[in-house]
Amino acid sequence: MRATTLALLLCFGTGAVQAQEADAQAQAELTPVLKSESLVFNGVTRSKDGRLFSPFQRQQKDKGLELGEWIDGKPQPYPDAAWNGWKTGEDAARAFVGVNAIRIGPDGDLWVVDKGAAELGGTPLPGGPKLVQIDLSANKVRKVFPLEKATTDKSFIDDFRFNGRKVYLTDAGQPGILVLDLDDGTLRRVLDGHPSTVAQRPLTGENKVLLDAKDKPIAIHADQLEVSPDGKWFTYQACTGPLYRIETKWLDDAGASDAERGKHVELFAATVSTGGTAIDAEGNIYASDTDNLRILKFAPDGTQTTLVQDPRLVWVDAMWIDEEGGLWLPAAQMNRSKGMNGGTSKIAFPTTIFRMSIGAKPVRN
């Protein structure tokens, strides 16, 4: 990793990017598809048969959804009320405490990451951090993969991606990457504390430094991640960027030391404060810009263009590309939530999930 390379990435191509923005903007059509007058979500995923799911952020202690299925335009507790009914003091191993990311896996099941803490930056509860696999045909939990053995009291398991029978997960609290083998259940930490997993500046949204309930600047470490369509590259970043990459063979090699692994990390692209990402079958990465309310598109060579810019795209979080070539954009407004706004919510309802056609095929590793 070279500082001069990063500086060049930040400066290079500014004129070309601006020249393409108007054309991209003219072609973009944002269609509101889901709205809520009271709930805050930070993602969306869609099954092949059209079922829609979102993770939700509770705005009151011990009340509200954690995971919901959108039915007739309204979210319902999924897979049932019991999994969504956790309260302070109850067993954190068999209910959702703090769902942070979901996606339909390559097997067609719904997979859910629970950070195991009820609040942003909170200490994970015993048994709380977990990856939950849900059978969509039976609407029942198929299996729970505990993550506690690879976490600490500072951990915040954030997001995840598949690569065959491996699952890669980011730890945004204790900077690092988790590697889970679905066949034997082994769980390892890699790139633990590596500079590429550590936030280098405070988090921002709408050009404002975000503060926690104690008015302290927020740092979210290893967060967004993608796996290339061929499974060769793992791309990741802290929430404030930039994007790095490493060949997946170095993550999968349990015999490699972290010192050796770190030598193979490469700078990929100069991203900015980011809410969420997605990747298409051509290897293009889509990343939201939480300050300028736009979606950036990074080609496999790292070249940046602007896909769409719109004042309604406030903190677009985990995106999803459907089988029809549509990009789903949850305008989560997380930067306006009380957890990121000094303890006071400034969310402007309704919260909205948009969709736009991008003509791209999805990746289902």
TrEMBL record:
Keywords: Secreted, Signal
InterPro entries: 6-blade_b-propeller_TolB-like (IPR011042), MRJP/yellow-related (IPR017996)
Record-linked Gene3D superfamilies: TolB, C-terminal domain (2.120.10.30)
Main location: secreted
Membrane-spanning ranges: none
Alphabetized Pfam families for the sequence: MRJP
A GO cellular component entry from the record: extracellular region
Coiled-coil stretches: none
Organism domain of life: Bacteria
Compartmental location: Secreted
N-terminal signal peptide: 1-19
Name used for this protein in its record: Major royal jelly protein
UniProt organism field: Methylorubrum populi (strain ATCC BAA-705 / NCIMB 13946 / BJ001) (Methylobacterium populi)
